[in-house]
Design a protein that fits this description.
The chain has four helices and three strands. By secondary structure, the protein is an alpha+beta fold. The protein is elongated. The N and C termini lie far apart (78 Å).
Amino acid sequence: MKKSVRAIFCVSVILLCMFTFVTFSLGADFDSVLQKWSRTYKTKGELGDELVITATYYSAEYIEALVQKEAELNLWTESEMEDYKYELLKVLKLTEYIPIMLSFDMKGAP
């Protein structure tokens, strides 16, 4: 009797730990995911102008975090979120291209 109670208790603790881990990993902060999948290059010119180039790779983790962020900002329903994700994946064409977003921030004289 004690062995079965102990086994049930152990299984429930393991399941609780797994659920907690999955919840935290799915709800990862967007900024930390963005930082993980982005690289930034900064340079300064002779006249004091500054150029910042940021490259962001659209990994599965980044796409999921982006969809979650947009859903929270726009108060989307589950179906609206799925539609947005479907359209995003369709536009990215993951089977044909390596999706990377390049951002240029130029401060000073062009």
